[in-house]
Amino acid sequence: MNTIFITGSSSGIGKAAAKLFAEKGWRVIATMRTPEKEVELTQYDNVVLYPLDVTKPEQIKKTVSHVLKTESVDVLFNNVGAGMKARLEDVTEEIIYKSFETNLLGMIRVTQAFIPYFKKRRTGTILTTTSLAGIIGLPLDGFYAADKWGMQGLCEMLYFELRPFNIMVKTLVPGVVKTNFKMEQIPYEGYEELMKNQISLLMPNIEEMELPEEAAQDAYVAVTDGDRDRMCYVTGQKAKELYNKRQELGDEKFRCYLREILIPGK
Predict the structure, then answer these.
(1) Cβ proximity of 44 and 19 under 8 Å
(2) Is the pLDDT of residue 182 over 70?
(3) Averaged over 186-206, what is the pLDDT?
(4) DSSP code per residue over 179-229
(5) How many angstroms separate the Cα of 73 from the Cα of each of 2, 31, 42, 141?
(6) What is the pLDDT of residue 32?
(7) In Å, how far from its chain's centre is CA 53?
């Protein structure tokens, strides 16, 4: 039985992935800040819950160490994340550090804890949920965009660094997914029209927004397709359209294309 370790399993893509992998016959190590509150995942015999707050280094060491002593883990799925919408000048030091701790540093800490284990086994897969905001610099993404670009870049580096040890490194790149994803918003006076255009671009039809279960399907493909060369798995129709458009036009022309949609005539 294959085993996957998932962070951020209490909701959204993480919970949907935990359910899907369990239903596919995998053993699932589902981690979250308050596992004692979880009721859905406890219904699966092949799911085990562990406490994990990625902003707490000592808890990461304790939980991962215990898991790797008692389990044979094949896949690490870094999925914890928190977002924001704000003008850059309004983002405080406190918010910056909170975002950095949750998104980037948390992912780094958990990944560091697994690398020696996978290297020793000379096999393993590291899948990380980044974001369309980690590939396209969408306005008002605050420090979240910096975190996600950092995660995407780090994964690309690890793709090369861990290849000699037969460890696959992949990213799941969602656009807007219909979840209770935590998005902190700070008033962005002067950018109301821009945000209206951005919402229309990314969410033209709320009823057709991607569900977490659909993103989980892409996560499952990423860790089971055996493609050692593919790193980036974009999920969601609108995200795929924008990603493909950027590949088609190239960075500079795509930026102009997007500018005309978001701030026409400027």
Answers:
(1) yes
(2) no
(3) 85
(4) S---EEE---TT-HHHHHHHHHHH-S-GGGPBPHHHHHHHHHHHHHS--SS
(5) 7, 14, 20, 34
(6) 96
(7) 15
* 77-107 residue pLDDT tens: 999 988 888 888 998 999 899 999 999 999 9
- Tell me the one-letter amino acid at 237: Q
144 among known catalytic residues: yes
Of 44, 50, 144, 191, which residue is the catalytic one? 144
Neighbour order of strands in the sheet with 47-51? 47-51, 27-32, 3-6, 75-78, 124-129, 167-174, 232-235
Looking at residue 231, the DSSP 8-state letter turns out to be: -
What pLDDT, in 10s, does the model give residues 33-53?
Answer: 999 999 999 999 999 999 999
Q: Which amino acid would we find at residue 84? A: M
Distances (CA, A) of 206 to 20, 176, 211: 24, 10, 11
Residues 6+ apart with CB under 8 A from 50: 29, 30, 31, 35, 63, 66, 67
The closest alpha carbon to 102, from 155, 51, 144, belongs to 144
**Among 39, 171, 132, which residue's Cα sits nearest to residue 15?**
39
